[in-house]
Amino acid sequence: MNNMSGIEYLCVDIANCYGLDKEVFADRIKWVKDNFANLEELADQATEDKVLYIKSVMALRDVCAGKPTGHLISLDATCSGMQVLSALTGCIKGAIITNLTPEPKRYDAYTEVTAEQNKVLREWQVQGLEISRKDAKDAVMTSLYGSKATPKKIFGEEGPAIEAFYEAAMRSAPGAFGLLNTLLNAWQPWALSHYWKMPDGFDVAVKVMQTEETRIEVDELNHHKFKTSYKVNMGSKSGISLPANVTHSVDAYVLRTLLRKCSYHAPTLKKCKAMLTEFMDSPVTECKSPLLGMYYSTGLVDPVWFETMDKEVAQSIPKELKVKLIAMIEDITQFKPFPVLTVHDAFRIHSNNGDALRYHYRNILADLADSTLLDHILSMITGKKFKYKKLSNNLSQQIRESIYGVC
């Protein structure tokens, strides 16, 4: 990961708002420097967000004049759904095109799938058919969550276009797209809901809802009759919602963990470290915290432990976990705490905290790659012991050295 100063992150923010977010950091910063004298005049050419572009340029002018700024820059994860699924499945190909490897290039997953789809069509010697990025993006975004209707609408019910799309998707991100059938097959026929628990103790309970229709007669309107529909909690033999719901639940977990690591309470972590150190070699007793079971089931150590840590908990947990929790405290506190505003996978922070946010985000995704979270979730949904065979077992180190996972 390349470290940058606060003013460099401010330049990145300006370039992002202008529409240069697909460029590498060095080129974004260079563009701002090259156009420094007339940045305001370029506002009308901003293709991403003109208002935020102007706001960011104003912040840069203040900084250059020696004035403090409270301006928040925005750093976005690149195709976060595919990122999460690639990390969980150990998929190096999917990790590459979602910027989770140390490649010195800022990949765009949708562009990569588009190029691969057109490559497949050429390999199959299909003439006169060129797929646009927009069509490929719309198909990827929906099919990644189990939809078959949107790809069919875009590429047709059958034929080389839709066949090439699925071939390209599997070539580009075999972990994410290969996991789809596993998640679809995990559906529990006629169950009223699907339930699983996240590593930080959050419960995910998704009701199975069906649409029912009925006719209503309104006496006061001269007995006018009309049809209406409503949702009812009713099981079904099959369904396609699990890929989206599982992915979103992990995405939300990443967000919660990131917030805990960035916006931590320093006195609490100091107190927890002291307790863990004090009881490091104490005999292990019965631990009443439900988080211990989550640790054993997923292999993930979450900072949520520090929110409920007391002497009883510190003494009762095994030494290996105490060591990991202390290491996490030391890792978190190397940066000062700072607030983060989030909208899904977009993070708004002060520019001085850019390195810290990218560092924590990278490590959280790396931890996912090393975890057994996918086994845990599928086992809870199906009620059966599940073991997913990852495509690789060494992806985490590459993720920790990545550059553009959030940029």
Describe this structure in words.
With 407 residues, the chain is mostly helical. Among the domains are: 6-70, Orthogonal Bundle (Helix Hairpins); 193-233, no CATH class; 242-400, no CATH class. 52% of the residues lie in helices and 11% in strands. It contains 19 helices and seven strands. The protein has helices spanning 6-18, 25-34, 50-64, 80-89, 92-97, 109-123, 133-143, 149-155, 160-172, 174-185, 242-262, 266-278, 291-298, 305-308, 311-316, 319-332, 354-370, 373-382, 395-400, and strands at 72-76, 193-197, 203-207, 209-218, 224-233, 341-343, 346-350. The strands form three sheets. The protein has a three-stranded antiparallel sheet with strand order 1-7-6, covered by helices on one side. The chain has a two-stranded antiparallel sheet with strand order 2-3. α4 (80-89) packs across α10 (174-185), α7 (133-143) runs antiparallel to α8 (149-155) and α11 (242-262) packs across α17 (354-370). The chain is globular. The protein starts with 5 loop residues before the first helix and ends in a 7-residue tail after the last helix.
SSE topology:
Elements: H1 6-18, H2 25-34, H3 50-64, E1 72-76, H4 80-89, H5 92-97, H6 109-123, H7 133-143, H8 149-155, H9 160-172, H10 174-185, E2 193-197, E3 203-207, E4 209-218, E5 224-233, H11 242-262, H12 266-278, H13 291-298, H14 305-308, H15 311-316, H16 319-332, E6 341-343, E7 346-350, H17 354-370, H18 373-382, H19 395-400
Antiparallel strand pairs: 1-7, 2-3, 4-5, 6-7
